[in-house]
Design a protein that fits this description.
six-stranded mixed sheet; alpha/beta; Rossmann fold; single chain
Length: 504
Amino acid sequence: MTDAVRAAWADLAALDKPTLKALFAAGDRLAAYSHELELPGGKIRFDWSKTHLDAPHVAVFERLAAATGFAERRAAMFAGDHINVTENRAVEHTAQRGVGREASVEEAEALHLRMKGLVEAIHQGALGEVKHLIHIGIGGSALGPALAVDALTRDGALVDVHVVSNIDGLALEAACRACDPATTMVAVASKTFTTTETMINAASALDWLRTGGVTDPYGRVVALTAYPDKAVEWGVDETRVLPFSESVGGRYSLWSSIGFPIALAVGWDDFSEFLDGAAAMDRHFEDADPADNLPLRAAFADLYYTHLRGCQTRAVFAYDERLRLFPSYLQQLEMESNGKSVMLDGKPVTGPTAPITWGGVGTDAQHAVFQLLHQGTNLVPVDFIAAIIPGDSLSPDHHRNLLANCFAQGAALMAGREAKDLARAYPGDRPSATMLCEDINPATLGALIAFHEHRTFANGVMLQINSFDQFGVELGKEIAKSIVAGDAKFDPSTEALLAAAGIK
């Protein structure tokens, strides 16, 4: 940690921390902390006015960004430099959207054309009647496709998609029950094509196809991988292998061939709009100065609450049923990226990194967890996400009440309410931010996801950690393999559990 970085953190800690009421009384919060960004699918309004950010804090956070090399790291990412230093890889998910190193963008475009050809061939019946797709993956190979398919197919899908990630056989059985083997294809999504959970599920899916009368089950499989030779070796015909670059990380991969189920469900035109929305956010993040850079501003708020107010969690609530999987998607994006304890120089971190991301959906969450947010002893910064245009065709009362509840929660968290009966008192001064989309469509969904990708990256830069490795997931997987192989000895508790379950 350099002296400039250390000084910035010390200055941030020394600043006064006014209440939200005081900040609103002091001047026009909206002008400084509420911004609209025009995107291909419509505007998104980003409102941080109900956070405790103020001009003195923002000024020092900008110093911190400069001292940690934010501009340089951002430029290096878009240039295709190997900023994933622990794995010596570039980080090029933005190239999948057309923004980045020219050669990588051209490669992504060529692979997208390959995917487009297969998607359109399936839609046109060239591979027989296809009504269903069982998409098998885990982590980033499943969470992104599941979110996008669920959000964008509420009015119907060109192909019915079922995403299976859990190794628990109940998950695959549920998907199989909803499909007819005669009209079902299987997508196997694995960067390395060796992921244990994915490959076991894939083998069982092939057995299901055989049992269902499909004489050539491998002929119904599409492989999505960065190692196409392994997919061919496994049995997939090379014409149905959709590769993607090794420089695209798993949790950033839905823009690549991992997005095949999205394109199959919504059609190629909508998938292209999805990429275009993300690309618009890429260009904003790449070009905007720190004072106007929306993902960077969000990262300032994140660091304020984790480092200066001791917040260990951040809650995300989607006031739109189409975004019900968004909090789950963000959990992996943020906690796998920034849940680290070592800095880029190999030294231990000196403070908190990623908060625990959690959340839920709209008014459901109000009747479950908002008691703690309003009256509990934990300070939890909250993000609200909503849309002006409803996704339903029912009475306007539905959407009017939905949005009224969303905005009321933010107002109540900030204002609170005094009462002689402390059980009925609300302390207030509790922060929230709101992202209000004009509509939820492929482009705005793409922009929202890309916004959070860049927010996560900006946090990582200022924390001086590598947001693009995930070694923390490996140890448990290694031990699980040794249990299955039966070649390891464990502590008495684990040994007793294995014996009780009949595994050993």
